[in-house]
């Protein structure tokens, strides 16, 4: 029988979780859903830990509410709660799209958005969607709390800047979506393989009649860490999205992204082919949604 830990502790406040993480006599890890961590321990990819600190019943980390000019999304919210939320549909459509595609209902009832992001995979659907939404993260430790751009959370594939046994990802802040603003998410998976994205794309844009105002585009996996396609964004910003302009943006995206071949997902060449499809899909959806919001 495979044991995941020596001690399991269900916590109810951020401070309690941090105290246990810092005082554990051996290795301690945050458990938030556990759909990745427990599987990796079971498969021997991750070493057995002494203490699992369950944070799924911390009220603050399960909150979903408007906070000033942002939508706060607690890190312990399950994917099911996100996909069913009217606030997410209104202010974070790309994240709603992503949660619908991410896993089967049984997994989505358990898996959390914080766990998806903290796992630091360069093609994590939640991460790519949140990055397009210009999310910031709140991280807590015994020294206090800090708020930083989501991009700052990643070092490399599967490696985050969160200090194990010390830092706790509390939640995300997403700017509220304005009248002419909308977002979308698109992806493709290998139907004959594991249900992970061959390529995914997040997009947020602001529509000013027939012009694009601001725009953000994210693609995964496009490198060792999640990235925005800044050159492609600059080509589209403050422009009419003509076919020629979008073709230029695609060329820039293909130059910016560093696609590689994966035996379990797709070849680099096929990912380049998919990039054109997903760019059109995500743009068309976000563009139409922005028009609908403008007319209501």
CATH class type of the largest domain: Alpha Beta
Reported by name, the CATH topology of the largest domain is: Enolase-like, domain 1
Decide which structural class fits the backbone. alpha+beta
The helix/strand order is EHEHEEEHHHHHHEEEEEEEEEHHH
How many strands appear in the DSSP assignment?
14
Taking the alpha carbons of the first and last residues, their distance comes to 58 Å
The assigned CATH architecture of the largest domain is 2-Layer Sandwich
**CATH homologous superfamily name of the largest domain?**
CO dehydrogenase flavoprotein, C-terminal domain
- Proportion of residues in extended strands: 25-35%
Question: Would you mind describing this structure in some detail?
Answer:
It is a single chain. The protein is of the alpha+beta class. It has 3 domains: 5-54, Uridine Diphospho-n-acetylenolpyruvylglucosamine Reductase, domain 2 (2-Layer Sandwich), CATH 3.30.43; 62-175, 2-Layer Sandwich (Uridine Diphospho-n-acetylenolpyruvylglucosamine Reductase, domain 3); 181-295, Enolase-like, domain 1 (2-Layer Sandwich). It is 35% helix and 28% strand. The chain has 11 helices and 14 strands. The chain has helices at residues 14-23, 37-42, 79-83, 86-91, 93-102, 105-108, 113-118, 125-132, 230-236, 243-256, 268-295, and strands spanning 5-10, 28-31, 49-54, 64-67, 70-74, 136-141, 144-149, 154-156, 159-160, 168-175, 181-189, 197-208, 211-220, 227-228. The strands form 4 sheets. The protein has a 5-stranded antiparallel beta sheet with strand order 4-5-10-6-7. Helix 5 packs antiparallel against helix 8. The radius of gyration is 19 Å and the shape is globular. The mean pLDDT is 91.
């Amino acid at each position: 029988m495979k044991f995941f830990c020596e001690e399991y502790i269900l916590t109810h406040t951020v401070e309690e979780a941090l105290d246990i993480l810092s005082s554990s006599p051996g290795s301690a890890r945050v458990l938030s859903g556990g759909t990745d961590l427990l599987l990796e321990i079971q498969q021997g990819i991750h070493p057995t830990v002494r203490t699992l600190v369950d944070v799924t019943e911390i009220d603050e980390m399960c909150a979903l509410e408007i906070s000033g000019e942002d939508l706060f999304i607690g890190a312990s919210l399950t994917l099911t709660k996100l996909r069913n939320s009217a606030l997410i549909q209104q202010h974070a459509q790309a994240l709603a799209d992503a949660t619908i595609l991410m896993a089967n209902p049984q997994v989505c009832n358990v898996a959390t958005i914080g766990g998806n992001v903290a796992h630091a995979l360069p093609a994590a659907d939640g991460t790519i969607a949140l990055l397009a939404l210009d999310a910031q993260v709140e991280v807590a430790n015994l020294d206090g709390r800090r708020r930083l751009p989501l991009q700052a959370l990643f070092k490399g594939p599967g490696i985050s800047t969160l200090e194990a046994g010390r830092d706790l990802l509390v939640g995300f802040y997403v700017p509220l979506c304005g009248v002419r603003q909308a977002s979308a998410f698109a992806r493709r998976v290998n139907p004959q393989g594991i249900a992970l994205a061959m390529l995914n794309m997040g997009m947020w844009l602001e529509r000013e009649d027939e012009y694009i105002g601001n725009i953000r585009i994210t693609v995964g996996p496009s490198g060792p860490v999640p990235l925005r396609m800044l050159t492609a964004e600059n080509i589209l910003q403050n422009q009419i999205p003509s076919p020629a302009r979008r073709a230029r943006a695609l060329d820039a995206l293909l130059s910016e992204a560093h696609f590689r071949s994966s035996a379990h997902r797709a070849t680099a060449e096929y990912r380049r082919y998919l990039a054109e499809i997903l760019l059109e899909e995500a743009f068309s959806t976000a563009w139409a949604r922005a028009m609908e919001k403008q007319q209501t």
